[in-house]
Amino acid sequence: PKGRPNSGESEEDTARRELREETGITDVELVSDTAFHQEFDFEHEGNKYHKTVKYFLGFVSNINTEIPEEFKKEVSDIKWLPFEEAKAVISYDNAKVILDQAWEYLKNKTF
């Protein structure tokens, strides 16, 4: 999920809200000591932009794959996959980099 913060909303609160609004997932525990960043440039309607995206790592207790009716316009499929399978289905190289970073973090972290 992606989106802009509402007035007075922290980045973490924005991430939780966007996750809830776009997937229906309400129970997520964000890992507070890390985040992953991606920067890129793009052009839209003749204007050049630089964008920084921040990704949070989170844990959910419910891995249900049923998509609630109200989210079917936003989400076409939900899958919970092991790392290697997830990496194989991701189509964007920059997303694979973020997944690799998250995996390295998880392998080296004690919870």
Q: What does this entry look like structurally?
A:
This protein has helices at residues 11-23, 83-89, 93-108, and strands at residues 28-30, 36-44, 47-55, 58-60. It has 111 residues and is of the alpha+beta class. The strands form two sheets. It has a two-stranded antiparallel ribbon with strand order 1-4. It has a two-stranded antiparallel ribbon with strand order 2-3. It is globular and about 45 Å long. The model has no long low-confidence stretch (mean pLDDT 90).
The secondary-structure element order is HEEEEHH
Specify the overall morphology.
globular
Terminal Cα span: 25 Å
Number of DSSP helices? 3
Largest sheet: 2 strands, antiparallel
Number of strands: 4
pLDDT < 50 runs, ≥5 residues: none
Radius of gyration: 15 Å
The percentage of residues in β strands lies in 15-25%
Structural class by helix and strand composition:
alpha+beta
The oligomeric status of these chains comes to single chain
Q: Estimate the helix proportion, in percent.
A: 25-40%
Mean pLDDT: 90
Q: How are the strands of the largest sheet arranged?
A: 1-4
Layout of helices and strands, plus pairs?
Layout: H1 11-23, E1 28-30, E2 36-44, E3 47-55, E4 58-60, H2 83-89, H3 93-108
Antiparallel strand pairs: 1-4, 2-3
Overview features:
111 residues, alpha+beta, 22% strand, globular
Task: Give me a quick take on this structure.
Helices cover 32% and strands 22% of the residues. With 111 residues, it is of the alpha+beta class.
